[in-house]
Amino acid sequence: MTAPRRGRKPPSPQIARYSWHECRACFRGSVIIYLAAAEKYPIAEVQVDKTVKKIAVLVRDRQGEALRMAVGITLMDDVIDVYILDRKVEETEENSFNIETMKDLGMNVFTNYEGNRGITFFSTGEIAKKLLRYDHVLPY
Fold first, then answer.
1. What is the spatial distance between Cα 137 and Cα 24, in angstroms, rounded to a whole number?
2. For the segment 35-45, what is each residue's pLDDT rounded down to a tens digit?
3. Same structural domain, 96 and 62
C-alpha cells in the first residue's frame, strides 16, 4: 500500500465524498479505495445499506463446514434459513453444537430427509417453492 500524493484528485465522484486528509490507498485489482486514516478526519456522507436480506444455506456434502458458515453469516443481521438436503445430519459434536446455536439464534433449520430428528421436515417440492422467496441461495 502506498499513500496518495497530496493534491491528487480522487478517481471518482463517490470517493470524493470521503475525507481527503491522511487517506491511504488500498489497491484491489484496478480499483483504488481511499480510507480515512485517523478518527479526527471523519468520513462524510457514507450511506449504509441496512436492508435485511433473506439468505438460504443449502447443506449437502460438507455438513460441518456448511453449518459453521451458516452460523457465521448471522453476524450480518440478515435472515438465515438452513436446509439440510438428501441425507442424515452427521452426528458429530460440532454439528450438534452448530444446530443448537442456530436454534438459540432463532434461525430456521429444515430438511427433506425424514431421518433427521428435531428438524422441521419439508418435501423437496415444498423446499423448492420456499427457495423462490430468498434474496440469496448459498449451496454448500
1. 36
2. 444 344 444 44
3. yes
For residue 73, give every residue at least 6 positions away whose Cβ sits within 8 Å of its Cβ, in sequence order, or none: 55, 57, 80
Query: Which letter, b or e, does each residue of 64-75 get, where b requires 16 or more Cβ atoms within 10 Å of its Cβ?
Result: eebbebbbeebe
Residue 21's pLDDT band (cuts 50, 70, 90)? very low
Task: Give residue 115's domain range.
Answer: 54-139
Q: Residues 6 or more apart from 21 whose CB is under 8 A from it?
A: 36, 38, 41
Q: What is the mean pLDDT of the chain?
A: 75
SS3 98: helix
CATH at residue 128: 3.40.1260.10
Which of 25-29, 42-46, 57-61 is the most confident on average? Answer: 57-61
Grid coordinates given for 92:
458429530
